[in-house]
User: Fold this.
Amino acid sequence: MKLLEGKVALITGAARGIGKALALRFAAEGADIAITDLVYNDAMAETINEIAAFGTRVKGYASDASDFAATEAVVAEIVKDFGRIDVLVNNAGITRDGLMMRMTEAQWDSVITVNLKSTFNFIHAVTPVMMRQRSGSIISMSSVVGVHGNAGQCNYAASKAGMIGLTKSIAQEIGSRGIRANIIAPGFILTDMTLQLPEEVRAEWAKRIPLRRGGTPDDIAGVALFLASDLSSYVSGQVIQVDGGMAM
Ligand code: NAD
Assistant:
């Protein structure tokens, strides 16, 4: 029996990067997959094709995760299409880096809204569904930066730390309904988000990592699979750093 057989997983911001890797890994373990991203573009279509190759049901939805009303609507559509939601992964996220002194209000607002408010939006919309099922696993993609801070990323660090506080609170609120909520805090993972950084910055990061390499989206997918499946049936309210030992 595959680890996610019979389960439906909803992953936000999954047209590419870490979200896509999770979708593929979950599909390989038998889950039906709903993915969202800002727009339904070629990347989304390609991801859907790759997921479909595993023989599971998959559908993509264009939806802005930071929009409360749009999130309520897309979750209702997903429940209509799939009948249930067993796993929610809050993965959609952005960076708008800058030192505090130079950070604009727009940089602050956009990162807090896309990273943190979106997590609230989806948890708020999906929780009633999971409560009716009396089971569910909620995984939110924070960052080591949300635990340890990072110069030049105060907006991002605040948004990712906020996701941790939100997760620990709802783990306490809805644990009695059989719903678990956990955080993955990736370190330096090689995706479009980090490939924007100059080569020398990436080399500098690698030196700080005991395993001496950047992580891959698949490194994150393995931990997400653990948290999504019943292998982690007694794990809730936890922050799991997946960073090659970078921040201990
Ligand atoms: P990415 O930029 O490759 O992918 C992010 C996806 O989210 C994109 O497909 C993007 O279109 C989508 N997205 C952005 N805003 C959205 C919105 N408002 N609504 C819906 N979708 C939206 O990034 P990634 O590296 O795959 O990162 C995925 C998550 O992991 C993010 O939350 C990121 O903060 C977190 N993370 C990444 C790293 C890393 O090193 N790459 C480290 C720590 C945490």
Remarks:
- Strands lie at 8-11, 32-37, 58-62, 87-90, 136-141, 179-186, 239-242.
- Residues 8-190+217-241 form a domain with the Rossmann fold fold (CATH 3.40.50.720).
- Residues 12-13, 15-19, 36-38, 64-66, 91-94, 114, 141, 143, 186, 188-189, 191-194 surround nicotinamide-adenine-dinucleotide (CB under 6 Å).
